[in-house]
């Protein structure tokens, strides 16, 4: 179901439950506008994200704490996105060896392929994936 439709149903049900269809719910103390704001911050069923930097991007799927991931990305001056990294201008990916982690580093063409493979194998200890 579309996220906007789910959100609309949630706000509608909240307004019905408090008897005030104008977008506020003083009886329960939760304004519908606040729920809309919070829900728009993290999409419903968001499980994939990425953090893009100038020459690489880190993508994660099956997230358990998306807000922590988002804050870490912003703290390290990355560009947070609710989707996987773009493959445009990408030269390859490095998947971490740990089976419990679904994290990949995507390298872009402003680094040589040899340097990217070396970083993947030596520093990250991951598996190189051709794109």
% residues in beta strands: 15-25%
* Broad structural category: alpha+beta
Low-confidence stretches: 34-40
Taken in chain order, the helices and strands follow as HHEEHEEEHE
The helix content is 25-40%
Question: Overall pLDDT, averaged?
Answer: 75
Distance between the termini: 31 Å
Please list the strands of the largest sheet in the order they lie side by side.
3-1-2-5-4-6
Q: From the alpha-carbon coordinates, what is the Rg to the nearest angstrom?
A: 20 Å
Main sheet summary: 6 strands, antiparallel
Give a brief outline of the structure.
37% of the residues lie in helices and 24% in strands.
How would you describe this structure in keywords?
4 helices, 131 residues, 37% helix, single chain, alpha+beta, 6-stranded antiparallel beta sheet
Structural features, described:
This protein has 131 residues and is of the alpha+beta class. The chain is 37% helix and 24% strand. It contains four helices and six strands; from the N terminus they run ααββαβββαβ. The chain has helices at 3-18, 32-41, 66-75, 113-124, and strands at 48-52, 56-61, 79-81, 90-96, 103-108, 126-129. Strands 3-1-2-5-4-6 form a six-stranded antiparallel sheet, covered by helices on one side. Helix 1 runs antiparallel to helix 2 (32-41). The longest helix has 16 residues, at 3-18. The protein is globular. It starts with a helix and ends with a strand. The model is unreliable at 34-40 (pLDDT under 50).
């Amino acid at each position: 179901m579309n996220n906007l439709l789910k959100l609309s149903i949630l706000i509608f049900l909240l307004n019905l439950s408090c008897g005030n269809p104008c977008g506020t719910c003083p009886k329960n103390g939760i304004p519908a506008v606040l729920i809309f704001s919070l829900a728009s911050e993290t999409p419903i069923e968001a499980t994939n994200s990425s953090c893009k930097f100038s020459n690489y991007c880190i993508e994660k799927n099956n997230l358990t704490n998306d807000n922590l991931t988002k804050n870490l990305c912003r703290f390290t001056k990355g560009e947070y996105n609710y989707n996987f990294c773009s493959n445009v201008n990408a030269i390859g990916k490095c998947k971490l060896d740990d089976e419990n982690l679904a994290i990949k580093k995507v390298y872009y063409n402003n680094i040589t392929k040899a340097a990217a493979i070396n970083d993947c194998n030596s520093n990250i200890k991951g598996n190189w994936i051709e794109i």
